[in-house]
Amino acid sequence: MDKKLALDIYRKIILSRRLEERVAELIKAGQVGGFMHPGVGQEALQCAAIAALGRDDYMLYAHRGVAYWVARGIPLEKILCDLACKEGGTNHGKGGVMRVVYPELGVLGESGTLGGCFPIASGAGLSIKVKGEDRVVLCFFGDGTSNRGTFHESANFCAVRKLPVVLLCENNGWAVSMPTERSTAVKDIADRAKGYAMPGKVIDGNDVEQVYSAVSEAIARARRGEGPSLVEAKTYRLWGHWIGDPDSYRSREEVEKHWRRDPIPIYERKLSDEKILTEAMKKEIDTDARAQIDRAVEFMQKQPFPKPESALEDLYA
Ligand SMILES: Cc1ncc(C[n+]2csc(CCOP(=O)(O)OP(=O)(O)O)c2C)c(N)n1
Ligand SMILES: [Mg+2]
């Protein structure tokens, strides 16, 4: 990873964390509704993985947080308008949280029915193969979601057709209040790759370089026509499952322990050791992130809600 890329990922991680915090405030103020699942603690993984994508590649994100959109470069004002159901959003305010779709940058969305992402990712991969395009699909999903039948059907289909799909599991140890070890027979979800004759790799999801390098390797394999890969990034969600979750199922000691592994200070220490990031730059990047968010929130607040008569537009049957 060169310096420019390392810093670009850092900027996106900081912008994502500041946006998570701001969205939580907007929810408390009643300006954003619905179930927002915060990605605090997982931004490094999300930003580093997306940095490995090329301009024309596709991605399906999971339900956790804002970093996927920030990292892919979707304008902040569009993201905020989607969250607040305002007309300026990618779905013209008709989607709400988890419904950012931006085909201009290959962002194919997310399925509210968890596990719906896998057949869509396989379909996108198949279309790439049929059309002979130079593209890949990056599909994010959680540890809990990996237990859906669609994961297994799609993994087999992608493997047997050698589709250019990278399956990226964000294993944060929990699916709402269900710990992974109680829902999942294998210790490492990456082990399931063996059953579908694809490479499976476990990485530290809080280590930017490991994520970037493992996802880049899987993408390169997909581009060579060698088929799918499964990457399992071990991470942790530092906030509750959703904004408002009393989070009574986890011990405070467990959560505290993981705050000490917050990927942001880890990455900051690494970048300053490598003389890439100074204290002054850190301050400048943080101030810039807050200013960008302020401008986007102001834009969102001035935007109208979609008109009732537009409710049936953009529907397909
Ligand atoms: C098919 C389906 N079942 C249940 C839900 C409700 N639900 C939303 S998020 C979630 C937990 C998913 O856990 P995981 O895949 O590990 O992702 P995480 O929330 O930990 O990021 C559940 C059960 C859903 N959206 N879709
Ligand atoms: Mg999980």
Query: Strand tally, please?
Result: 8
Overall morphology? globular
In the CATH scheme, what's the topology name? Answer: Rossmann fold
What is the makeup of the main sheet?
A: 6 strands, parallel
What Rg do the Cα atoms give? Answer: 19 Å
- The assigned CATH architecture is 3-Layer(aba) Sandwich
The SSE string, one letter per element, is HHEHHEHEHEEEHEHEHHH
Adjacency order of strands in the biggest sheet: 2-1-3-4-8-7
CATH superfamily: Thiamin diphosphate (ThDP)-binding fold, Pyr/PP domains
Query: Unreliable stretches, pLDDT < 50, 5 or more residues?
Result: none
The CATH class designation is Alpha Beta
Proportion of helical residues: 40-55%
Hetero groups bound? thiamine diphosphate, magnesium ion
Strand content: 5-15%
Can you describe what's shown?
With 317 residues, this protein is of the alpha/beta class. The protein has a single domain (3-65, 111-301), classed as Rossmann fold (3-Layer(aba) Sandwich). Helices cover 44% and strands 11% of the residues. The longest helix is centred in the first third of the chain and has 26 residues, at 3-28. The site of magnesium ion has 6 residues, from strand 5. Thiamine diphosphate binds next to strand 5.
In short:
With 317 residues, this protein is an alpha/beta fold. The protein has eleven helices and eight strands.
List the main descriptive attributes of the protein structure presented here.
single chain; 317 residues; alpha/beta; Rossmann fold; six-stranded parallel β-sheet; globular; binds thiamine diphosphate; binds magnesium ion
